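User: Fold both of these, please.

Assistant: Here is the first one.
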Amino acid sequence: MIRPFTYTGAKKIVFGTGSFRSLADHIRELGGARPLIVLDHALAEAGFRKTVKDLLDKSGLRYSLFDGVEPEPALERADEGAKAALKGKCDLVVGIGGGSSMDVAKAVAALAGNKGKALDYLGLNKVPGPGLPTIMVPTTAGTGSEVTFTAVFVRKNLKKKEGMNSPFLYPEVALLDPELTLSLPAQATASTGIDALCHAIESYTSINASPMSETISLEAVGLIAENLRTCVHNGSDLEARERMLLGSLYAGLGLANAGVTAVHSLSYPLGGAWGIPHGMANPLMLPAVMAYNLPGTIEKFAILADAMGQEVEDLSMRDAATLALDAVELLIEDCGLAMTLEEFGIAEKDLPALADVALTVARPLANNPRKVTREDAIDIYRDAL
């Protein structure tokens, strides 16, 4: 029996090399005349501010620029961006960059259209109505934020991360141009790429996966496994960058529809309390969580191993399943991300506190194919120590 399911996402997806040059056309198609451009600060300083200005100045559009977004953005950044949108009388928001910029842009659009504070909208379905229209332009192949309904922030006073989750956060347009990922440094390529792999594997093994999301998530796993190494070690390979960005997109669609699992629940405290970037926290936790989950979803792990290029013919289901973990560990190692919690200063005495916070990130844990107790969470952290 196929249980009923729904499938949602960004209203329009535009993918193709050179497609960023059509940004002004998409703004006008949505009725925008005064967009707010939300941009990662480091990206802006590296020259992309000028690229955006040149493109929009040529189009004749009037626009405002908010380029103060940092990695792992604080919740206050959404409120600041909303003030900029209201001050500029903006009628549309464009998020350009990695997940941080796009998450801030989605939240800014919601706030500008609904008023209130970002704190009011944390949680599930707290956004009361549509915000300003949004266009998301990823410059990394990782977060999939261009097609999700989530915006994640750090609450510095609580030393934890929380998300704004609402269908009103789905972008009107996801504009994906592989050319924008060509200049991404190797380490950022690796960390964002493993983040995308997490989304693909977690959404594939989620108990809320559907036949449609499973198909897309599994395709994402294959694309990422085949192309991430090339992107990390030969970043100018446009074909590999194209396929990697497509894999990230598919992983984002899988995430939006099936959800993530325990990897994200256990990685959030690493970012909130210890300041470990999300793209580093996920590869820290992925192998340990997979090892824990394997007995709960052996058949899917065997399929994942095959998708990642492992020789599974003539193997038992369980032996094939273990190859999925081997393949993931090798990919992380080849991308230069093989690390331990200990390397970040985390000790055995810190694990119970991490587990306590992880258990509050309840939605991903509810999706996990194997129940996670407090003691289980401590053991998983210990495995990653």
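And the second sequence with its predicted structure:
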Amino acid sequence: MIQKFRSYGLAVSMILVLALFAGCKNEHHTIRQAEFSDSHAITITFASPVDADWAKNPANFAVCEKQDPDILADIASLILTPDGKKLTLKLAEPLNQNNHHTVTLKEILSDGKSGGTADVTVKKSYAGYLIQILIGAMIIQNFVFSKYLGLCVFFGTSRKKSTAVGMGITFTIVICFASLMSWFFYQFVLKPFHLDYLQIVVFIGLVSLTVQGVDTILRKVNPKLFKAFGVYLVLVIANCIVIAVPLMLANNEYNVWESLMLALGAGLGFLIALFLMSSVRERLEFADIPKSYQGLPIAFIVAGLFALSFMGFSGMTLF
């Protein structure tokens, strides 16, 4: 048994090492940094001074959102520092800093020599970006109250806090493992061999494999919790959230850390939703509710009120 766990640990470690080095892109050798300096400007720091005439020509630059490369932003002015190492591009309209931007620098001239053309990605602080993905999936764009996904398991396991918390933790573990495996297969198997059209089938299979593993472990470790879940643990396989997350990370081309944050946020968001709902439903058992509203009708009303409350987070940005 110990030997098996060591083998599994080694396999997981190899996957993580491959994931860490996957998809890493180096910036152009003449550029050190590119960042948003304010809502209307992007500042580019060069490794060595660039020619002033080249830097003052707007035709040498193009700015666009990464997801909309055909829509170019209008450059109002170009400001180069006296040492020639920092160039600020002032834009006519405000930038949506939540989205990644691409700055194209044509034939960079430094000391009269061409450094070639560079495409630089401008985005927020990466740590802040990861936290934004986590908080966004957990609260701002909660999959239950904002996207109305996973309602079958949500209503089925939110009668009691103990079952709700256990289901939320189990679901978080399942979705994290399933999403990381889905990311790995998508990046190293489906994309290289142009099998993207099989992603739904593959993701469902990986989710099923993860659920079966959790089912077997839970049956041995905590039989009482396993019995409390009943059929709902198996329903995780068909849960919309656990399928939606791998599809989203594939569609957005997230790397391994971004995928983990999205999966963890979705799982914790589901846990929060279950805990809130179970807390209310336990109190509803002692409330004087009209007979026609007892059971699922009042549960749907409460869920609707929670959804209205979570709408208050819409459009919120942290970084």
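The chain has eleven helices and ten strands.
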